[in-house]
Amino acid sequence: MKKILSLLLCCSLLFAVATLPASAKAVPETPETRTVEYLPDGSYFVTELTRENSLLRSSQGGSKTSTYYNSNDVAIFAVTVHGSFTYSYGVSSSATSASCTVTTYSTSASFNSKDAWTSGKSAYGYGSVSYKGTNTGRTVSISCDSYGNLS
């Protein structure tokens, strides 16, 4: 009887340990929202918001990526801003950090510059790319409300 109880206890402990998260780091999700902005020349930007699963109720993180496509539906470059936020549920929120990444997909595009900053409850990223002799810049922002919702 003691062996059976010991075996059940060991199995219970193994199950409990296996279900604990490996770390407190957030896990990215699939994009939550996707918008398309068409430009007069037939090119367009596709912007996607991705929220991370935060293990803490008072913090949130996520990223927003805006990808530029030419009129032939070929991806040329993307600007991504990643923001981290703290919030007091239903009361207030604040952006605590911002970072920006610029990715070029076309050999006709070259990276110029990037910048990232926070202001209030928003994180901003700016990226500039030269494409076919024209400098194109894009500012992407991500915000968090007092309920932890990103937009």
Task: Provide structural commentary.
This protein has 151 residues and is mainly β. The protein has one domain: Immunoglobulin-like (Sandwich). The chain has one helix and nine strands. It has one helix at 2-18, and strands spanning 27-28, 33-38, 44-53, 59-69, 75-88, 92-104, 109-119, 122-131, 134-143. The strands form two sheets. Strands 1, 2, 3, 4, 5 and 6 form a six-stranded antiparallel beta sheet that branches. The longest helix has 17 residues, at 2-18. The chain is elongated. Residues 13-28 have low confidence and may be disordered.
Give keywords.
151 residues; mainly beta; Immunoglobulin-like; six-stranded antiparallel β-sheet; three-stranded antiparallel β-sheet; 1 helix; 58% strand; elongated; signal
SSE order and pairing:
Blueprint: H1 2-18, E1 27-28, E2 33-38, E3 44-53, E4 59-69, E5 75-88, E6 92-104, E7 109-119, E8 122-131, E9 134-143
Antiparallel strand pairs: 1-3, 2-3, 3-4, 4-5, 5-6, 7-8, 8-9
